[in-house]
Amino acid sequence: MKQAGGPCGEQKQGHAPSWSQAASPPSFPTARIDLWKVSLDEPSKSNMEEGSQALLSPDEIARALRFHFEKDRLHFTGCRSALRGLLAKYLAIPAAEIRFEYTTSGKPRLAAAQNPSALQFNVSHSAGMALIAIGSEHRLGIDIEKIRENVDVSALSERFFSLRERAGLRALPNHLRVPGFFACWTRKEAFLKATGDGLSFPLADFSVTTNPDLDPEIEEIRGNAEARKQWSLADLCVVDGYRSTLAVENALPPLHTYTYICTP
Questions:
Q1: pLDDT tens digits along 156-179
Q2: Domain positions in the chain
Q3: Which residue among 112, 147, 189, 214 is least crowded, i.e. fewest CB within 10 A of its CB?
Q4: What is the CATH number of domain 149-245?
């Protein structure tokens, strides 16, 4: 399937960072956010499924087994094992012993007893790529989507976007409609994941900018233009053919970017 949107190097907006390779995370992320990209389609991943599942909790294993397709199961277990491996390094806790709690919307968070320094994290994966954001002090959310050119932009925007966003998409030239749709989608999803409210926060109740080539912003929240100032968005250049956005409560801190190296 043809990928919409240009290569990362051609993006006019957002952060186009250098993703350095690192097997272990640096120090506790104070006054910064560490972003980790994880390739879920590495040839070694299928050979490591048994090792990955050994790190997961019974509820995570049960969730993995509910996937109909093997590739989806491998992606889920690979993503969760990478998350556990990273959190284990930041918190000095064995990966298999990390305990998650879940908000009413299903957002995972660390058990309070294991998290005295209020580490924050969020995870997103699409097709064969995952992103893990790790910070502290402020809520954060991340979303990554594989861009598909055959999406029905008009129908989906009518269903999921605000009136302001729909108008913004219609104002874009034809060649930017699909990239604009995915820019809008990831910006909205990142914000919703940061709030922890999920779909209990109606998608039409807030608006983000839709131009994929301009810096992302939240334009209003429930009609309040001042409330948007409590949040920052950053578009991220991760890999060609994908779109990604980070949402952070408060001002955007420095972003450190890494490629996760899966080790047996």
A1: 999 999 999 999 999 999 999 999
A2: 17-143+252-260, 149-245
A3: 112
A4: 3.90.470.20
State percent of the chain over pLDDT 70.
Answer: 86
Average pLDDT of the chain is 87
- Report which DSSP code applies to 3: P
SS3 content of the chain, % helix, strand, coil (to 5): 40, 25, 35
Q: In which residue are the tokens 């109606």 written?
A: 202
With 90 as the cut, is the pLDDT of residue 124 above it?
A: yes
How would you classify residue 100: left for phi > 0, otherwise alpha for psi between -120 and 50, otherwise beta?
A: beta
Alpha-carbon separation of residue 150 from 7, 46, 71, 147, 154 (angstroms): 18, 30, 22, 9, 12
The DSSP-derived string for 190-227 is HHHHHHT-GGGS-GGGEEE---TTS---EEEETTBTTG
Q: Which fold has domain 17-143+252-260?
A: Ribosomal Protein L22; Chain A (3.90.470)
Residue 26 pLDDT exceeds 90 = no
